[in-house]
Amino acid sequence: MTLNELADTAELKHRIRRLVSVVRSIAVDMIAQGQNSTDSALHLAGRVGALGRAAVAPIAGGMDLELLLLDELVAQGVQPAPIVIDGPTVYLNAKSAELMSLAIHELVTNAIKFGALSQPQSRLRVLWWFTGPGNAQLHFEWVEEDVRIAADTRRNPGFGSQVVKRLIASELRGNGDMLFSNEGLLCTIEIPSSEALLQND
Q1: What is the pLDDT of residues 121-157, one digit of tens each?
Q2: Chain-centre distance for alpha carbon 108
Q3: Rounded-to-integer distance, Cα 196 and Cα 191, Å
Q4: Is 131 helix (H, G, I), strand (E, B) or coil?
Q5: Cα separation of 148 and 132, whole Å?
Q6: pLDDT classification of 19: cutoffs 50, 70, 90
Q7: Contacts 24+ apart (CB under 8 A), 173-179
Q8: What is the dihedral of CA 169, 87, 136, 73, to 10 degrees?
């Protein structure tokens, strides 16, 4: 086995261990939330599916951020056409692709249930761009507008908030926030380019 093949095998083993760890974390979180078995099975299947779509990126290549977003929308039966999607071509490394896929999955799921993808008058914009000297930061923004939110809609932090606020910070040295207003949701994620992007050495 060549050195390159050994390196690829080691990277694959590392990715599998990380995926198993993330799935375990998801399962533990869902048990702690006390969801019923049917809801738990559906949510777990959706989240594992999101991870699977991110994991198809080859070891030596990255996952296109726009493709990751479009794959999730199509997987959940959403037509991307009415959604404003805009940003430069970005190739995420395996780790950031996995976490971003989870975040996007949660955002799409929430929007279908309660937000901009559940109401015809609502609008959704998904944008990303680079900020800072030398494009040091990748900034991702999910903006829902003109959403009529019922007064009794639960706003307790869920797994999506944990991905955006906790995992993005701890795993990618970034930061994220989810802000709910009377008109919809604003989610922002910032990740250092050194942590998020595929590095072509």
Answers
A1: 999 999 999 999 999 999 999 999 999 876 655 555 5
A2: 9
A3: 6
A4: strand
A5: 35
A6: low
A7: 176/103
A8: 20
Amino acid code (one letter) for 13: K
In this structure, what token pair is assigned to residue 195?
A: 């942590």
Whole-number average pLDDT of the chain: 78
Question: What is d(CA 157, CA 46) in angstroms, rounded to the nearest whole number?
Answer: 19
CA distances from 122 to 54, 65, 106, 111, 143 (A): 28, 24, 18, 10, 11
- The secondary structure of 134-172 as a DSSP string is TS-EEEEEEEEES----TT------HHHHIIIIIHHHHH
Whole-number Å distance between alpha carbons of 100 and 117:
19
Q: What is the pTM of this model?
A: 0.75
Find out whether 189 and 168 touch, Cβ atoms under 8 Å: yes
CB contact at 8 A, 60 and 166:
no
CA-based nearest residue to 141, from 82, 41, 65, 45: 65
